[in-house]
Specification:
eight-stranded mixed sheet, 22 strands, about 550 residues, five-stranded parallel sheet, globular, about 15% strand, alpha/beta
Length: about 550
């Protein structure tokens, strides 16, 4: 024990009650640790609690995302659809929480506003929203990569007198359930055409009197291909759970796909087109994750697929002027997350749906009655902000996190994260960031990768307890090596050419623009191999006492 060490209120505090947070809490309790979970919402679910907009659903195959079912925690769970809807996902998270009995450890409707490391006592002092302060030895963040809601900086944004809300803060009724908003005959504006906007737009288009879609830059979108799962199919899936889990663990992103080992530039055009056609008609992310192995490293190969998808967009949208505006010109295919869609492009064939190009004519302001762009005014009854999140580090930036000698995490990471394994930052002992920057879970099937990461962190804490260790901090050398490798690997890919949510862009006072990746793109198996090497060598790379 460190001299002068303080006995904390809890062994660990877990921030967040999403699928990773509740599993981490469960594992710590199983291993005899006292744990307190903190959650801003009034129940478990994380992203599935907050994102209750119409059309919200998984873009991962349900049975491959469902780690709790795969691990035998809720083996009797029946999936209704290949890509589960938000209500089903929330039921799933609740059922898992019941099975693990984790709610007794959580304080709901509670925010963490500050977390300060106390050098003298080797504890984290955690301040909650109502002023309560508690202490813990280990602070574990499970806040999720897409949880810090981002509203656009638009003049007059609070002036609108109609209904206005962010997609992740959908209006709820007195019981806390999402309100069923009747868009019939209403003038609706949706700002944003990322993954969320692409899910909402076709549904709102069905009933809205007029729908104005405000698009700054289009995304490459491909069909989701969702279908129901019959009872017979579910029985087969259940019997294959062990194989499914072992398989997704060996794929780069823990999705049930593997890349074709050919290079697109080596395949004859006719054969290549037939391959693309097959992938396009398959459900899910196959076209992104099962394509040729040089998709994200070779511009010519990438252009083959981009041109193919562009032609699909042109064939699905009747007005070719609109079609061209829906085809990305600023990033390669897969350079940003590829939104999975259902009848998205067909929505623009409806007379009541209009695309507003705010790249050409930016939004000037929001008034009491609508949106003014540089060249027109749009009267609206409802505005939906599908404007995304401050990704990966955003939720941590909103907490006053201070490490040794009072160093602020937000300042330390101002130019981009520096970590070891994406799990710890030097200067912030005993602080673990699950599904955080530069680790193997943020650019991955979070349902699986978050669970695997929680297991690894638990094993490390169990090892420390067995050895009588209470302090762990990434060494400078280990952090430098890991961070450099993450940035180097990312720079080798075409991902570096897109301003995706997993890239942080900052402008220096001298006008210099710095772009840093927030994710590890080396693949899940390689990441976990490195983590296991670290563990086998007695957690080499961590300074422990």
């Amino acid at each position: 024990m460190i001299v002068g060490e303080q006995k904390p209120d809890f062994d660990a505090v877990v921030i967040g009650a999403g699928v990773t947070g509740i599993y981490q809490t469960h594992l710590l309790e199983q291993n005899g640790m006292s744990v307190c979970g903190i959650e801003a919402g009034n129940d478990v679910g994380g992203t599935w609690f907050w994102n209750r907009y119409p059309g919200c659903r998984l873009d991962t195959e349900s049975y491959a995302y469902g780690y709790f079912a795969l691990k035998g925690i809720i083996p009797d769970w029946d999936w209704n659809e290949r890509f589960a809807s938000q209500p089903e996902m929330l039921r799933y998270a609740n059922r898992a929480a019941d099975a693990m009995d984790v709610r007794k450890h959580y304080r709901f409707n509670t925010k963490v506003v500050a977390a300060h490391y106390q050098d003298a006592g080797n504890v984290w002092q955690v301040t909650l929203g109502k002023g309560e302060v508690l202490t813990c030895r280990f602070l574990i963040s499970c806040t999720g990569p897409l949880s810090a809601t981002r509203m656009p900086d638009i003049k007059g944004i609070s002036a609108f007198k109609g209904e206005a809300f962010h997609s992740s803060r959908w209006p709820v009724d007195e019981a806390g359930l999402p309100r069923d908003i009747d868009f019939s005959g209403k003038r609706v504006g949706i700002i944003g055409t990322g993954a969320t906007g692409v899910q909402i737009i076709p549904i709102v288009a069905e009933k809205a009197g007029q729908l104005q879609v405000f698009q700054r830059s289009p995304n490459w979108c491909t069909p989701l291909g969702n279908t129901p799962i019959s009872k017979d199919e579910m029985e087969v899936i259940r019997k294959r759970y062990p194989n499914i889990l072992e398989y997704v663990k060996i794929t780069d992103t823990a999705f049930p796909y593997h890349r074709d080992q050919r290079k697109a530039i080596d395949v004859p055009a006719e054969e290549r087109e037939a391959f693309f056609e097959n992938l396009y008609n398959q459900p899910g992310y196959g076209i992104w994750l099962s394509g040729f192995r040089d998709l994200l490293v070779n511009k010519e190969s990438n252009k083959f697929l981009a041109d193919f998808v562009a032609d699909k967009i042109r064939s699905r949208v009747k007005d070719q002027t609109i079609a061209e505006k829906l085809i990305p010109k600023d990033h390669p295919f897969g350079g940003k997350r590829v939104p999975m869609e259902t009848n998205y492009y067909e929505a623009y064939n409806k007379d009541n749906v209009h695309l507003v190009d705010i790249h050409e004519a930016p939004i000037v302001e929001i008034t009491e009655t609508g949106i003014q762009t540089a060249d027109a005014f749009y009267e609206l009854d409802v505005i939906i902000f599908a404007t995304g999140f401050d990704a990966v580090t955003g939720s941590l930036d909103r907490i006053d996190i201070r490490g040794k000698s009072g160093a602020r995490l937000k300042d330390v990471w101002a130019d981009g994260p520096t970590t070891f394994l994406g799990l710890q930052a030097r200067g912030f002992p005993n602080f673990y960031t699950l599904v955080g920057p530069h680790n193997g879970s943020a650019f991955c099937n979070v349902g699986v990768c978050g669970g695997l990461q929680a297991e690894w962190v638990t094993q490390m804490l169990v090892y420390m307890a067995a050895k009588g260790l209470t302090f762990a901090e990434a060494s400078q050398a280990a952090e430098d090596e890991w961070t450099e490798s993450v940035y180097r690997d990312f720079a080798r890919t075409l991902l570096a050419e897109a301003n995706a949510w997993w890239v942080r862009t900052t402008t220096k006072p001298d006008g210099t623009i710095v772009r840093r990746t927030l994710v590890h793109v080396g693949g899940g198996p390689e990441y976990r191999k490195r983590c296991e090497q670290v563990a086998y060598m007695g957690y080499e790379g961590f300074e422990m006492a």
